[in-house]
Specification:
Elements lengths: L1 H6 L15 H5 L3 H15 L5 E3 L2 H14 L6 H8 L2 E3 H8 L8 E9 L2 H6 L4 H8 L2 E6 L14 H4 L1 H17 L4 E4 L2 H13 L5 E4 H6 L2
Parallel strand pairs: 1-2, 3-4, 3-5, 5-6
Length: about 220
């Protein structure tokens, strides 16, 4: 992601003191712990003009769930304002930079998997597809219907491993039936989950993050 942004002339700064956005604790019901981590996030990125993340779930946490998390807290206004400056990678490229072609090439028949947080929380659908449609030599396949969960769901895949694995297997089978060689997703959680299941099934299907494709990795 950093390589793509630098190529487009974006001046980057990586804050080494950053940690988690607080979503795992928040989703598990540990509001106090989530608030502590979220306060650190605010402090680290307080002076950032914009914050770009390769994970829709992190962006959704800051943008959509920091306001209720900080309700009644002195940092509420700051938390809410910060949420307007955080962007998912494809969202930033298309909506903020106005870029849909980064001069990438991938000679592959590939299917696109939109993450749940991207589609349902951030309402992103056309942004990653616009970028992929401009990747040279890419035969892009988009499964019909609304995006289906890959089975990750953060802690869900740990607490309900058997169910999560079955969901991932079903998702991989959908792409297999479409004859794709590669699955491209815009969230590292989905990439990790599908890579793990593909490896367990000894499936040679490649799973890549959108940033890897656009960077030419």
């Amino acid at each position: 992601m950093a390589n793509v942004l630098r190529r487009l002339g974006v001046k980057l700064k990586y804050e080494a003191s950053q940690t988690c956005c607080g979503q795992p604790a928040f989703n598990s019901g540990y509001k106090k712990e989530a608030l502590q981590v979220a306060k650190h996030f605010i402090e680290v990125f307080r002076d950032a003009e914009v914050i770009v993340a390769p994970s829709s779930s992190c962006v959704a946490m800051v943008r959509n769930f920091y306001p209720p998390l900080f309700a009644g807290h002195p940092k509420f206004a700051e938390a809410k304002a910060l949420g307007q400056r955080v962007f998912e990678f494809s969202e930033f490229l298309v909506k903020k930079l106005g870029v849909v072609d980064v001069n990438a090439t991938l000679a592959r028949k590939a299917g696109f998997h939109n993450s749940c947080h991207s589609f349902r929380e951030l309402r992103l659908q056309e942004e990653p597809l616009a970028l992929l449609r401009n990747v040279r030599e890419l035969d892009l396949i988009v499964p019909p219907g609304e995006p289906v969960c890959c089975g990750f769901g953060g802690l869900f895949s740990i607490k309900f491993e058997a169910i999560a694995s079955a969901m991932t297997r079903s998702r991989l089978e959908t792409f297999e039936q479409l004859g794709v060689e590669t699955i491209i997703s815009n969230d590292p959680g989905c990439v990790m989950q599908m890579r793990q299941e593909a490896k367990a099934r000894r499936n040679k299907m490649e799973v890549l993050h959108l940033a890897e494709v656009l960077a030419g990795c």
